[in-house]
Design brief:
By secondary structure, this protein is an alpha/beta fold. It has three domains: 30-50 and 240-261, no CATH class; 53-229, Bacterial polysaccharide co-polymerase-like (2-Layer Sandwich), CATH 3.30.1890; 274-522, P-loop containing nucleotide triphosphate hydrolases (Rossmann fold, 3-Layer(aba) Sandwich), CATH 3.40.50. It has helices at residues 13-25, 28-48, 81-88, 91-103, 110-115, 137-190, 194-218, 242-266, 274-281, 308-321, 324-329, 342-357, 374-378, 426-430, 433-439, 461-469, 483-495, 511-519, 544-550, and strands at residues 53-61, 117-120, 127-134, 225-229, 285-288, 331-335, 361-366, 404-409, 413-418, 447-452, 471-476, 499-505, 560-563, 569-573, 576-577. It has an eight-stranded mixed sheet with strand order 5-12-11-6-10-7-9-8, sandwiched between helices. A four-stranded antiparallel sheet has the order 2-3-1-4. Strands 13-14-15 form a three-stranded antiparallel sheet, with no helix packed on it. Helix 10 (308-321) packs across helix 12. The longest helix is centred in the first third of the chain and has 54 residues, at 137-190.
Length: 578
């Protein structure tokens, strides 16, 4: 109860990751929605898309060479494979291929033809791989082969055009030299001279060099490359099949669901984990109540055989009994953050029964004067007598003096209930002197006073009682309370002079319980009372059955009101009648 609360930075990282993952799994609807969307998308892509077929051909690129078998000859001399790859997907290649296909009866535009082509180059090779995707196997094969042959054709044309241009250049240089040689030959026949002979010899050498270059260009092997692998018609369509697309869609959908859950988690104002609840409220977690199928049949779980809910209430009561701050004053205020007060009502009644089992004189005060319902839900009947005499010795009338009733816990003892009553001026009634005297009874040895207050953020009734009770237990559902509400509750209770002893998490109502409460008949104020077991008549200490269960009245450890049959009520404690 008094252990320090570790901050987020002090917690180990694996625990935080596990906590965050569990928080994401809370939004199962978003996760399932994301997976379904992914599966639907994958199935739609698999079923709505047309079947496509891919044919592949490989072209080995080589450069023009005079003697490819000579020592030191290299096939990649002067080849830039990146540039060749760009040439293979150019419009020039597409135009030639479109013309070839048109002769075969396949009329297609150049842009549409090139849109299905993909040219790749395996690393460290002079090979271009032509992959074409078509609607039919034959279409894919024919277009892949036409494009590969068109590339080889345009490369051959460009090589031959380059040779022709160079030959024309050499011939242009050769013509004036030939004319000059002829003139010098005429001069040499008419006159004799060493200078003319030498000049003519030089011209002959230059003409021979140019003729040799032209001969070498004419002797070049202009083969642009080879179609190593001819495209063949594929047997099966390409692309991912239905199972693969469904698997990919499921993975993408799961990622989408996790993303949506994370966004929802970031903007969720509700408490996302018990660590966050403890950190926001500044108080420890007393317990988490389990959900029982028969939980809506009666308000009291204490005394129900084999009840896990009753054991949890007993554990919370023992923890409070050994808490130093509670043991000093033995006063407890039970309330909820906001909304209905059913959770706090059940917790207050069961904690009172648990303390009664421990032999304490328990007084349960219903301070909910706007919608009181504990007397009806616990099945008790007011004795119809005058109220007891308080410590002042004066006779009090009205609430809370004449509202005491005895509540028997089967096989566990009893506690006293000060049932609430509808009052016009609630703040004045809660701050009156009789209420103060009732709360002061918690100071007696062995006595425990439990006060049930309306939701602390809905009315100021709980704040009006905090300074006289001090210890507060907040009962809430973990998914219905906001972090800002808990922080505000801590500030309000601290400013009023009290302290939060802890938090009790209520499981809420299950599907069966919600259906029963929705179909339950309403009372005159529009409230839905809980389905009750047939209430037993008020027990009297003179009955032999009560004596057999509870023992002698002088040894009974419950604080109760006994009707002596003459319209007078008295209190019975562990020490006997007073």
């Amino acid at each position: 109860m008094t252990e320090p609360i570790r901050t987020l930075d002090e917690q180990d990282e694996p625990a935080l990751l596990r906590d965050q993952f569990r928080q994401l799994l809370r939004y199962r609807t978003l996760l399932v929605t994301g997976v379904l969307l992914g599966l639907l998308g994958g199935g739609w892509l698999a079923l709505s898309g047309e079947d496509t077929y891919a044919a592949t051909g490989e072209v080995s690129v080589r450069s023009a060479a005079s003697d490819p078998f000579a020592a030191g000859a290299s096939a990649d001399k002067g080849i830039n494979i990146g540039s060749e790859r760009q040439t293979a997907v150019s419009d020039a290649v597409g135009t030639i291929a479109a013309g070839t296909l048109a002769k075969q009866g396949d009329t297609v535009e150049v842009g549409a033809l090139l849109s299905g082509l993909q040219v790749t180059n395996p690393p460290n090779t002079l090979v271009l791989k032509f992959a074409y995707t078509g609607r039919t196997p034959e279409e894919a094969r024919a277009r892949a082969q036409a494009l590969a042959e068109a590339y080889l054709e345009i490369r051959r044309e460009r090589t031959e055009d380059s040779i022709d241009n160079m030959v024309d250049g050499y011939r242009a240089q050769l013509k004036p030299l030939t004319e000059q040689r002829d003139r010098l030959a005429e001069q040499e026949t008419g006159t004799s001279g060493d200078d003319v002979t030498s000049a003519r010899a030089n011209l002959i050498v230059a003409i021979s060099a140019l003729n040799q270059k032209i001969s070498e260009l004419r002797a070049l092997d202009t083969t642009p490359g080879y179609l190593n692998k001819k495209p063949v018609a594929p047997q099966h369509p390409t692309g991912a099949g239905l199972p693969l697309l469904l698997g990919l869609g499921g993975v993408v959908g799961l990622a989408l669901g996790l993303l949506m859950s994370w966004v929802r988690l970031v903007f969720d104002p509700a408490v996302r984990s018990t660590r966050e609840l403890v950190r926001s409220l500044g108080a420890p977690l007393l317990g988490t109540l389990p959900r029982e199928r028969a939980g809506a049949r009666s308000l009291l779980a204490i005394g129900r055989p084999g009840s896990r809910l009753a054991e949890e209430y007993r554990a919370v009561a023992f923890r409070l009994a050994y808490d130093p701050s509670f043991a000093e004053r033995r006063r407890l205020l039970v309330t909820a953050p906001r909304g209905d007060n059913d959770m706090a009502r059940a917790a207050a009644a069961n904690l009172a029964a648990a303390f009664a089992e421990m032999g304490r004189d328990v007084l349960l005060v219903e301070a909910d004067l706007r919608t009181p319902s504990l007397a009806a839900e616990l099945g008790v009947a007011h004795p119809g007598t005058k109220g007891p005499r308080w410590a002042t010795g004066q006779q009090e009338r009205g609430w809370p003096a004449d509202s005491r009733a005895n509540v028997d816990v089967p096989g566990s003892g009893a506690f006293t209930l000060v049932a609430g009553r509808r009052t016009e001026n609630v703040p004045r009634a809660l701050t009156s002197a009789p209420v103060s005297r009732i709360l002061a009874e918690g100071g007696r040895p062995g006595a425990v006073v439990i006060v049930l207050a309306p939701p602390v953020l809905s009315y100021a009734d709980a704040v009006a009682l905090v300074d006289r009770v001090e210890g507060v237990v907040i009962v809430c559902r973990p998914r219905e309370v906001h972090r800002s509400d808990l922080e505000r509750i801590r500030e309000v209770i601290g400013a009023a002079g009290g302290s939060v002893l802890g938090t009790l998490l209520h499981p809420g109502y299950g599907r069966v319980d919600r259906r029963a409460r929705r179909n339950a008949p309403r009372d005159g104020r529009g409230r839905q009372p809980a389905v009750q077991e047939p209430a037993a008549p008020p027990a009297r200490y003179g009955d032999p059955d009560v004596a057999a269960v509870h023992g002698d009245p002088a040894e009974t450890l419950g604080l109760r009101t006994v009707d002596d049959g003459h319209g007078r009520g008295g209190r019975n404690s562990a020490a006997g009648h007073r």
